Amino acid sequence: MITLLQLGAELGDEFFPADSPTFSASPVTGVHISELEDPTTYLEGGELLLTTGMPFGHSATASLAYMQRLRDKEVRALGLGLGPWLDEVPQHVIDACRQTGVELGIVPDGAPFQNVSRAYWRLSARDDTVNLMSSLGTQTALARAAIRSDAINAVVRGLAQALGGWAAFLPDDPQPATVYPASAQGFVPMLRQESLRFPRTGMPSASTFGINGQAVVLYPILAGTRIHGFLGVGSGRTLTKADRQIIMTVCMLLSLRARQRELMVSTNAALGGATAKLLLHGQPESARLVAEEAGMDELPSRVRVLALSLDDETEVRTVIQALGALPAGAALPPVAEAAARCQLRFADDGVLYLLLDEAQLGKTSAAAPGQDPEPSAGDTARNLRAVLSAPLTLAELPANLPALRQNLSGAPAGELSDAGADFDASAQTWVEALAAYTRADLLSAVTQYLRHRGHWEDASRALGIHRNSLRHRITVAGDLLGIDLDDPDVSASLWLALRRNQG
């Protein structure tokens, strides 16, 4: 912003104050020339008005009325050109300026008004260059911050410091807001409330509103046409053109980060889906290799399969959100939070399968404040069929899948149902796993152990091996299958499967 003091220093003897040693540092928004009795119709306020004094120079009454009109229009400076109408400045003009607070400058005889205008634009060009260089430096620093591991924190902090105010980024998911400085944390609830006014689709524009008497601007962060969050800014002053350029740069950087995160989530979902598909189709070793190469978490040893009905028009995200509204039986663990975190998801033929880690199921974490579920989630919950399986090892998944689909087709809508334990299907998988083990004859060992009802001496004698060797084989078999062979329900199902296999 160009000031009257800068303009006087630039022009020297061609423009100087009428009744003080120096000009003030009042900002000047432009230079306007007029000889009208009332030029305020053509002024916006803040300009330096140049005149020869024709409308008021010879009358104290006219001078006071003229200066009052300028004051009402918020014109703070008047340049009086001597020569054509006035050879010197009348005292009544000085008095009128003092009374109204209009600063008076003199353009001496022979100095063209055009020189004042040219000086203003020279200063303005220099100011724009300085602002541009400063802005470019700030934007470069912000771009460098955007590639750091803590990019969101660094960019928000850099923006707040550049504006001399505060900034906050509110992601459009259950993640906490990023605020700088920390003293601005109290603005977050009001910013979230204001963000609800934005349309969720299309291309929404920024919103300006007041918080505690301070003007705040809220910008949507878009990736395509989807809102990924909001950037709130409060500077306590009028934003300059350079300020807005910096803010737009930050919005662009946050949009790029949101797009990168969107692509990462999509890639992880594809890899998780491929891993889950391999597990459900009986390829646990291949699934482990995919998970390891993709950098995913280690696959759980035991899972519960959550099967959900899925139609073509409902997004997976909405279906998972709807789980929180489903009533469940007292014997079933809560699944909503585990489902939201689950990476192993696979959709096939109208069914969404989620492989939930049995060890983590029912555990809760400190949930960060986020947005409310989408309005469609409640409607989805009323029509959603959901079935949760018993705990299964990864090897047992394929055998239990048909029974799980059958249970889902008959499950009531609007609640989470228990699929129960289908040990007959699992037992056939156990038999196949025992038969496939090549380092020892586990199939015969388990058969004789169950036939003799867990009596080591009788079973080892039937096998012709030492009882310690039998103990070792039974331990290996239990670890291989992930089951307790002394559990009556397990041993009964496995014994029947062994009999069918022998037949």
TrEMBL record:
Residues 442-499 form the PucR C-terminal helix-turn-helix domain. It holds the Pfam family HTH_30. The lineage of its organism: Bacteria, Bacillati, Actinomycetota, Actinomycetes, Micrococcales. Coiled coil: none annotated. Residues 26-119 form the Purine catabolism PurC-like domain. This is Purine catabolism regulator.
